[in-house]
């Protein structure tokens, strides 16, 4: 039984329940974020009323049992959960939320809705967009979700992502229009060829600069390709660069960072019919810049034209980590020199030699590109200007200068949006306890969506500074951490409360205000850790090297 009706599927031995639901039955509300790692929760369904991740559940084990997807939930509870997530901004791209809806529905069905219950439920999931707080808040309003005005909410969401973004009740239930969900199920399927596999031995075809295995089904394509299975390495994630030797004063700050995975939940995907336009892998979200150079659309178009049939290009989580661009590592020194801040830095494999898109008045920054073995780098969220804003704030803090802005760190982004942040700490315990944010985005358009994006940006900034890392082989440049849980994304149970104040700004709406908040929170976090340790940590993630410090409430 599936969603209350008897179904039959002719599946192969060893196929997962997720494969049966998506590939055989066409139930695309159940998402594939990491299959078969069982680590992201996007494919959560009920089996005989109990939440389970479908990607690691063998299909043969559910024969004769009741499987429930979002479509099979009690309509009243399902719709109230979707409306509650909409009301608080607890769903943005909407890729992870169908699984979260299933988990929360099981929790509410049992009458367990305390904060500990919610934290326990969300521990099985990952969400990159929301920062968790708005999902927790949604549980508090699920009894009677307030109404929402969707047009201004969609306008603000689109302004924040820099690409298409829809706000609607259907989005938390999985109908965000993701590329692989819209593909014809009888299309050929192409998957990237993993390293070390002979293309001739498996009949791979080259397209968009890489090799692809094409077959009739996803199971057959991945089987022929010999899909990589993600593993977490025991090797440390070490920054590959060291700050340049410069004639800096004693109060200069130094910082070295490593490769950072964007960790968007929807793996790259596209599809295309012959002589047509390929589906965008950015159908409902910006992926924090991580998909701008995705190979998937060009490969889908090239293979479809060559084979004369529609072709789906589907990445696994391991493919996304291996092929997707990262935030490039930096190593820099920064100091106050009179009325300006000087930065002298190195950046791995990215060209930062020209003038920055934005920057504080009096900034004198020089960057040298240094080749380093590693994964590709790309257009990361607030790339370069966030790094410079952090270094400027750190240099001023180290020099004993008063912080700019009403809080502890102020950042003005390229669009003119302004983010201010203060990170509060408990010095006795050495922990971050609360984050205070103020944002000026001009006309906010929709306060709920703007607040939600700022909370999500805060979550990502805390991870960037404190916990996120990606181990890379220093000789070959191969990524060694291929599981989604190995990136160090801050867990829901330890995220400090985030308070957001929206300034009634003048003028038209300013886009990507949450990027300014992202940079401001990162800067404020670095300065707060400096106050705890008596100096700025000289490498990120800082909590890997700090004296027993942790993110916890």
* Largest sheet composition: 5 strands, mixed
Structural class: alpha+beta
* β-strand amount: 15-25%
How many runs of DSSP E, i.e. beta strands? Answer: 17
CATH topology-level fold name of the largest domain: Aldehyde Oxidoreductase, domain 4
CATH homologous superfamily label of the largest domain: Aldehyde oxidase/xanthine dehydrogenase, molybdopterin binding domain
Radius of gyration: 23 Å
Gap between N and C termini: 42 Å
Q: Which CATH architecture of the largest domain?
A: 2-Layer Sandwich
Note the total helix count.
14
Write up this protein.
- This protein is an alpha+beta fold and 553 residues long.
- It folds into three domains: 1-176, Ubiquitin-like (UB roll); 183-227 and 268-314, no CATH class; 330-551, 2-Layer Sandwich (Aldehyde Oxidoreductase, domain 4).
- It has helices at 17-24, 75-88, 97-109, 115-122, 133-140, 150-161, 179-182, 199-202, 218-225, 296-307, 317-323, 385-398, 447-466, 513-533; strands spanning 44-47, 50-53, 67-68, 188-192, 205-207, 210-215, 253-256, 269-272, 311-314, 330-337, 340-348, 363-370, 409-412, 418-426, 431-440, 498-502, 550-551.
- A five-stranded mixed β-sheet has the order 5-6-4-9-8. Strands 13, 14, 15, 16 and 17 form a five-stranded mixed β-sheet that branches. It has a four-stranded mixed β-sheet with strand order 7-10-11-12, with helices on one face.
- The radius of gyration is 23 Å and the shape is globular.
- Mean pLDDT is 93; it is low at 544-548.
């Amino acid at each position: 039984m599936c969603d209350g009706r008897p179904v039959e599927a002719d599946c192969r031995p060893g196929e997962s329940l997720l494969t049966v639901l998506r590939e055989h039955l066409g139930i695309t509300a159940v998402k594939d974020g990491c299959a078969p790692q069982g680590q992201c929760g996007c494919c959560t369904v009920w089996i005989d009323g109990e939440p389970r991740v479908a990607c690691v559940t063998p299909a043969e084990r559910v024969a004769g049992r009741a499987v429930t997807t979002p479509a099979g939930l009690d309509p009243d509870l399902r719709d109230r959960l979707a409306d509650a997530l909409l009301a608080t901004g607890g769903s943005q791209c909407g890729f992870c939320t169908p699984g979260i809806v299933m988990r929360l529905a099981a929790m509410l069905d049992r009458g367990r809705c305390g904060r500990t219950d919610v934290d326990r439920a969300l521990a099985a999931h990952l969400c990159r967009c929301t920062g968790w707080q708005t999902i927790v808040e949604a549980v508090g309003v699920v009894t009677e979700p307030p109404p929402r005005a969707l047009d201004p909410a969609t306008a603000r969401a689109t302004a924040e992502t820099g690409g298409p973004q829809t706000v609607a009740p259907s989005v938390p239930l999985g109908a965000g229009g993701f590329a692989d969900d819209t593909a014809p199920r009888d299309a050929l399927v192409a998957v990237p060829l993993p390293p070390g596999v002979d293309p001739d031995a498996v009949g791979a075809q080259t397209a968009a600069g890489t090799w692809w295995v094409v077959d009739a089904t996803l199971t057959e394509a991945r089987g022929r390709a010999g899909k990589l299975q993600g593993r977490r390495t025991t090797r440390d994630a070490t920054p590959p660069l060291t700050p340049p030797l410069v004639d800096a004063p004693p109060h200069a700050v130094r910082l070295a960072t490593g490769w950072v995975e964007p960790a968007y939940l929807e793996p790259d995907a596209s599809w295309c019919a012959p002589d047509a336009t390929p589906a965008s892998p950015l159908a409902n979200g910006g992926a924090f810049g991580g998909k701008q150079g995705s190979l998937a659309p060009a490969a889908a178009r090239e293979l479809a034209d060559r084979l004369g049939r529609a072709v789906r290009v589907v990445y696994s989580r391991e493919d996304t980590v291996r092929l997707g661009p990262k935030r490039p590592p930096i190593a820099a020194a920064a100091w106050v020199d009179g009325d300006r801040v000087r930065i002298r830095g190195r950046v791995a494999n990215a060209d930062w030699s020209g003038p920055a898109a934005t920057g504080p008045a009096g900034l004198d920054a020089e960057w040298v590109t240094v080749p380093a073995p590693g994964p590709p780098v790309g257009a990361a969220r607030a790339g370069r200007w966030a790094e410079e804003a952090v270094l400027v704030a750190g240099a001023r803090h180290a020099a004993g200068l008063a912080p700019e802005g009403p809080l502890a760190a102020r950042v003005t982004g390229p669009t003119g949006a302004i983010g201010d942040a203060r990170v509060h700490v408990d010095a006795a315990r050495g922990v971050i306890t609360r984050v205070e944010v103020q944002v000026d985005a001009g006309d906010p358009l929709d306060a709920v969506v703007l607040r939600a994006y700022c909370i999500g940006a805060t979550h990502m900034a805390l991870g960037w500074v404190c916990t996120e890392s990606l181990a890379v082989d220093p000789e070959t440049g191969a990524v060694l951490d291929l599981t989604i849980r190995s990136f160090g994304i801050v867990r829901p149970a330890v995220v400090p409360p985030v308070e957001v104040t929206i300034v009634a700004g003048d003028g038209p709406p300013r886009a990507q205000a949450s990027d300014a908040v992202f940079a401001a929170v990162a800067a404020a976090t670095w300065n707060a850790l400096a106050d705890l340790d008596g100096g700025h940590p000289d490498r990120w993630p800082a909590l890997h090297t700090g004296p027993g410090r942790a993110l916890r409430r």
